[in-house]
Structures are given as structure tokens and as C-alpha cells.
Recover the amino acids of this structure.
């Protein structure tokens, strides 16, 4: 029996670019180049490894996002995913975490799944809650923040490294998994992979395809509102000294002046 | 006066500092009602009462330890149903955020994560967040349902505000569906004896410039002279020189201490994301062009193997 894996990936503005807000206080997606969230590459990688260990597995990468989000899907396909689903609808602009989880849950159901794999957090919103929200909405076990994961005999197992303890977890499939950047370097797409990705199927679904109303979606339907954004004032230029043998002492003097010593 | 639920983060009844900060914030909105899950409720209640909890709803069940996250959501939901709060505040730990998110879905509420401040507003609590690697601050509200807000450590002062803190038993039925993810085993982390990274007033971090695990005692020595926590950049963690639990940055801990000292760290955007809101920033780096110097209040261009030991000695002798 085949193992159907759905990997949720997000298209985000490049973190090393000069990120801003648009006039409606949503993330400005035009000013900075977008890409597949680096933390979701780890999710694609783990899904690929799981599929390589399974007899018969099929990976679908799924994104909810604007037209350009196709780039993120292409990248995941070139890494080796089998097909892609792009949920795109003008009514989705400004959707928040609760709304996004609603759309993703519907799309995952429509795609069919035994295992859902997410990244630990998106590199723009950095909420890290989507996997938990999906588990709740889909009524599935949540096996999240794993630094090690494997699937065998209809079960997913993994290691979750927390602050006070490291936990070994286990759940029966179907389940929702998220993996951290400790789970292992993601592979680079090969030239062959990039060429093959051009021919892989990318389906496009809108809200009607998912039988969703726009009520809880988009900026107007969001469950939260951003009232104001302010650029953080630039830090005032500090004192920089070159160590000529007394650098440690000079630093101690500064710290003493600031009452840290 | 409306009641505000505060989810208690504790280790066997020892309440962690971020929870006390939440009590300060909760009192701005209403009367704090603490929710304590697991052992140690009596010991915790005394501390919670001292900081403003009018009531402490307590529940203990083996399921909280035997299964991941979901049983605690059942319990928090039971507290929510019993209290009908004006807001729910949860510490922004990895688990705290997951619990908060699932509660939000269940009770039909919006959620705001990683707030660095919460104030009362005309249309409900207003949360301040620090976004895009702390380049911007936003002010947000939950517009549907009861606000569920997770708050980062070091976001508010701990204040004494004695209240009754009466312990009440909370009846919790853990649903079968909440027993999906079994915790098969748990290996506790050894304590370093140093302050908790996210709670510390001073953090000293080392990066690739430290050059190897065998050199990290230089960083630890400075930290100990200052009573500080030790952090590390991802480069140092990936190289296996220091544990991942000490990583500062986007995929590690986000810290906001009074003083942050970076030794041998270049200051990549992902590192800055986790330390940029520190009050005073100091760096030691041999490359005058390193981006970390754009952030510093005081920087020393030099070799950390010279500068750090000299600083440590000087701190020790000044402290006598
Ligand atoms: C998705 C993603 C998430 C990430 N998350 C994190 C994160 O959470 N935390 C994090 O830190 N990084 C993170 N990174 C990595 C980040 O981009 C940088 O690679 C990393 O922070 C670099 O660490 P570093 O400054 O120690 O090393 P380098 O950039 O190599 O800098 C080392 C510095 O040490 C100096 N140095 C060398 N020798 C000495 C000496 N003897 N004395 C003084 N100075 C010396 C050098 O001049 C240099 O500036 C992430 C990256 C990605 C893509
Ligand atoms: N718009 C989206 N489309 C697909 N997956 C997403 C989207 N947003 C978040 N995710 C997934 O959820 C994870 C956590 O995201 P977040 O809770 O937003 O930090 C990401 O790593 C992705 O796997």
C-alpha cells in the first residue's frame, strides 16, 4: 500500500533582504525576492528520506500563497517531490494563522494523506504553530519539532529535544509531523532534478475547489488585526576600539560604567 | 472584574520566571487566574499568589507526561470553560505556543504569538510584537473570540502583588483523541548550574571564532564571572562545540537580556533575530567589518583569545 506524504511549504520573502510591510500592513512581497522557506527544505528532505525507505511512497508538496509561490513548489519538486498543489485565490490575501490552517487542512484532505510533514516555523511569520493547528483541525496525532524522524510499520517515531528533556515520541499514522533544522541538511536539487521538475504536475486550487467560504479568510476575515507597525529605531552608533593589548580592560571599564560589574 | 487565564510553566512546582511576568501583564487586563498542570500545585500556588493570582486551578494526571501536548490542551480548555476569561496568556515556549494554538482553534479565537508586551486597550488587549528579525515592532489585537496570546520571556517586570491564590481542583477528562502521541521515553537534560538562557540578565555567546569545543571554557569563564548564561551561534552548535539548547537566533532561543556579549560571532541576520532586542550589546571580533559591530554599544576589534581572558580577570578582580 502506498504511503501518501503531504509536505506543507511556504513561500517567504528572503530573510537577508530588506523586508517591509505593505500599505495594508501585510507582509510586502514585492520589494524582496521570495523563496522556499529554508526551514521547509528540512521538511522536504525528511519526507524524501522517509519515501526512500518506504516500498511505495508519493510526496505531494502543498503551498497556500500568491502566484509566485509556484517557485517554492518548483524547488521542492526539483529536490525530488512527485507532484505539487498550489492553493491560490485573491480572497486569501491577508489570511492569518488560523485561516491558513483552515485552508491547508481542507487541501490536505482533498489531496489525500497518510503523513503530513511541516517545517518547524516559517522564516517570515516565525509563529511555529501551523503544525499544531493542523493536528487539531484534522484530528490527528501531533508529532512535532523532531530532530530525528522515521516511519515504519504504520508508525512514526522521532526525537523531540526540549529545554528540560529529550523525548522519544511515537504515533500511529496518519499523523502530522514537523521537523527542525537539526534533522539533517537538505539536499541540493541536481541538474536532472531541475529538468524533471519542469514536467511534474502542479495543480492549482481556489477556494471554490476546496468548498471554502471566504468568511474566515483574507484580511477582512482574519482573527487578528495589525493596527500599527513601526520601524525599530536604528541603534545609536557605539564605541568601537581596536585591541592594542588593553581591549579586555577597556571593555571592563565600559561594563563597570554601565553598572554590570 | 474580568478574569484572565495564565498558563503556568513550572518544573515540578518550581514556577519559571516568564510565568511571573505573565501575571504582571495579566493584571493590566483583569484578575489573574493561574492554571497549574502536573505536580507541585501547592508549592507553586504560594509563589503565584504572591504575584497576583487570585485563584489557582490545579490538575494532575499521568496523561500530561505520557502523551504530547494534547492532554494539556484538554485541561486548559476545561479551565477556559470554567472561567470564561477575558484573555488567555501562555508563555512562548515551544510547547506553550502549541498548547495555545490548539486551544484557539477549539474555542474559536484568534491567536497572537511571541508578544513582547501586552496592554489593555479599548477593543481588548493590545499585543506588541517584534518582527522581521526585530527590524519592526507591530501592535496587534485578536478580533474574533477571546484573545489567546503567547508572551516571550523578559517581556515584563516581575512584581509582587499579593492575592488570595486559592487552590481549586480542576476536573479534567483527557479525550481518547488526545492520546495519539505517546512519549515513549524522556531523558532529562543535565543542568549546567548557570542561569536559564532566555531568563538571564546577562548572556555571553561564542561563535565560530571560538574555534573548537575545547575553547568554550573561555566563554564559560567570562559568563561565570558575570553570573551570565552561555549562548552559541548556529555555526558553533553545528560544529558540535556546544549543545543546541544554547543556540541563540531564529532557530534557537530568542534572548533579550540587559547585556549581550558576542565573542567570535559575525552577526548574521538569523543570529540577530534572536538577540537584537538586548538592551546593551557588546562584541569582540577580529574582523572590523563584521556586521555585529553595527549593533554594538561597545565593540572590541581583536582576538577573543586575548580579549576575553583579560576581561574575565578584570571582572573578577573588580568584583573582589
Ligand atoms: C534558516 C536558517 C536559520 C538559522 N538560524 C540561526 C540561529 O538560530 N542562530 C545562529 O546563530 N545562526 C543561524 N543561522 C546561521 C547564520 O546564517 C550564520 O551562518 C551563523 O550565525 C554564523 O555563525 P558565526 O557568527 O559563529 O560564524 P561566522 O559567520 O563564521 O563568524 C565567525 C566570526 O568570528 C570571528 N573570529 C574568528 N576568529 C576569531 C578570534 N580569534 N577572535 C575574534 N573573532 C574571531 C570572525 O571574524 C567572524 O566574524 C541560520 C541560517 C539559516 C539559513
Ligand atoms: N502558507 C503556507 N502554505 C503551506 N505551508 C505553510 C504555510 N504557512 C505555514 N506552513 C507550514 O507550517 C510550518 C510552520 O509555519 P508557521 O506556523 O507559520 O511558523 C511551515 O514550516 C510550513 O511547513
Amino acid at each position: 500500500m502506498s504511503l501518501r506524504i503531504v509536505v506543507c511549504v511556504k513561500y517567504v520573502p528572503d530573510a537577508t533582504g530588506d523586508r517591509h510591510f505593505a500599505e495594508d500592513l501585510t507582509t510586502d512581497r514585492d520589494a524582496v525576492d521570495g523563496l522556499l522557506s529554508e526551514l521547509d527544505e528540512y521538511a522536504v528532505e525528511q519526507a524524501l528520506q522517509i519515501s526512500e525507505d518506504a516500498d511505495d511512497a508519493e510526496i505531494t508538496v502543498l503551498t497556500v500563497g500568491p502566484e509566485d509561490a509556484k517557485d517554492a513548489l518548483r524547488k521542492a519538486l526539483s529536490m525530488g517531490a512527485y507532484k505539487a498543489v498550489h492553493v491560490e485565490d485573491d480572497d486569501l490575501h491577508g489570511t492569518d494563522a488560523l485561516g491558513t490552517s483552515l485552508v491547508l487542512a481542507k487541501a490536505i484532505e482533498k489531496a489525500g494523506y497518510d503523513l503530513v510533514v511541516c517545517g518547524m516555523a516559517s522564516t517570515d511569520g516565525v509563529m511555529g504553530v501551523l503544525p499544531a493547528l493542523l493536528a487539531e483541525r484534522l484530528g490527528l496525532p501531533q508529532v512535532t519539532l523532531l530532530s530525528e524522524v522515521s516511519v515504519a510499520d504504520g508508525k512514526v517515531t522521532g526525537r523531540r529535544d526540549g529545554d528540560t528533556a529529550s523525548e522519544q515520541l511515537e504515533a500511529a499514522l496518519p499523523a502530522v509531523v514537523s521537523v527542525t533544522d537539526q534533522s539533517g541538511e537538505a539536499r541540493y536539487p541536481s541538474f536532472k532534478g531541475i529538468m524533471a521538475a519542469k514536467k511534474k504536475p502542479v495543480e492549482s486550487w481556489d477556494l471554490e475547489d476546496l468548498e471554502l467560504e471566504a468568511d474566515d479568510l483574507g484580511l477582512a476575515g482574519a482573527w487578528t488585526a495589525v493596527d500599527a507597525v513601526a520601524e525599530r529605531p536604528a541603534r545609536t552608533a557605539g564605541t568601537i576600539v581596536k585591541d592594542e593589548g588593553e581591549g579586555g580592560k577597556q571593555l571592563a571599564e565600559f561594563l563597570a560604567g554601565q553598572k554590570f560589574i | 472584574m474580568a478574569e484572565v487565564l495564565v498558563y503556568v510553566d513550572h518544573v515540578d512546582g518550581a514556577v519559571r520566571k516568564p510565568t511571573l511576568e505573565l501575571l504582571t501583564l495579566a493584571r493590566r487586563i483583569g484578575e489573574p487566574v493561574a492554571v497549574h498542570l502536573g505536580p507541585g500545585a501547592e508549592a507553586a500556588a504560594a509563589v503565584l499568589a504572591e504575584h497576583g493570582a487570585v485563584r489557582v486551578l490545579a490538575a494532575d494526571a499521568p496523561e500530561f507526561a505520557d502523551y504530547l501536548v494534547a492532554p494539556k490542551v484538554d485541561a486548559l480548555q476545561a479551565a477556559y470553560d470554567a472561567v470564561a476569561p477575558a484573555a488567555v496568556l501562555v508563555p512562548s515556549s515551544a510547547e506553550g505556543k502549541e498548547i495555545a494554538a490548539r486551544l484557539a482553534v477549539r474555542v474559536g479565537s484568534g491567536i497572537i504569538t511571541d508578544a513582547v508586551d501586552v496592554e489593555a486597550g479599548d477593543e481588548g488587549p493590545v499585543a506588541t510584537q517584534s518582527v522581521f528579525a526585530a527590524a519592526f515592532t507591530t501592535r496587534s489585537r485578536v478580533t474574533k473570540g477571546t484573545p489567546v496570546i503567547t508572551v516571550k520571556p523578559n517581556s515584563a517586570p516581575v512584581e509582587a502583588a499579593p492575592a488570595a491564590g486559592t487552590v481549586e481542583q480542576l476536573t479534567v477528562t483527557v479525550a481518547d483523541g488526545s492520546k495519539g502521541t505517546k512519549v515513549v521515553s524522556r531523558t532529562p537534560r543535565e543542568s549546567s548550574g548557570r542561569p536559564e538562557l532566555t531568563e538571564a540578565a546577562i548572556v555571553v555567546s561564542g561563535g565560530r571564532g571560538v574555534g573548537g569545543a575545547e575553547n568554550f571554557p573561555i566563554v564559560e569563564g567570562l559568563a561565570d564571572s558575570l553570573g551570565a548564561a552561555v549562548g552559541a551561534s548556529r555555526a558553533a552548535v553545528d560544529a558540535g562545540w556546544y549543545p543546541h539548547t544554547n543556540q541563540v537566533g531564529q532557530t534557537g532561543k530568542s534572548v533579550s537580556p540587559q547585556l549581550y556579549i558576542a565573542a567570535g560571532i559575525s552577526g548574521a541576520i538569523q543570529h540577530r533575530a534572536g538577540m537584537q532586542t538586548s538592551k546593551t550589546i557588546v562584541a569582540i571580533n577580529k574582523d572590523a567589518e563584521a556586521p555585529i559591530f553595527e549593533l554594538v554599544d561597545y565593540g572590541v576589534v581583536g582576538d577573543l583569545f586575548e580579549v576575553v581572558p583579560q576581561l574575565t580577570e578584570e571582572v573578577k578582580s573588580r568584583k573582589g
Remarks:
- Residues A 38-39, 123, 181; B 207-209, 233-236, 247-252, 264-266, 268, 270-271, 274, 284-287, 290, 303-305 surround flavin-adenine dinucleotide (ligand 1) (CB under 6 Å).
- Chain A is about 30% helix and 30% strand.
- Helices of chain A lie at 38-53, 70-79, 97-111, 130-138, 191-197, 218-221, 247-257.
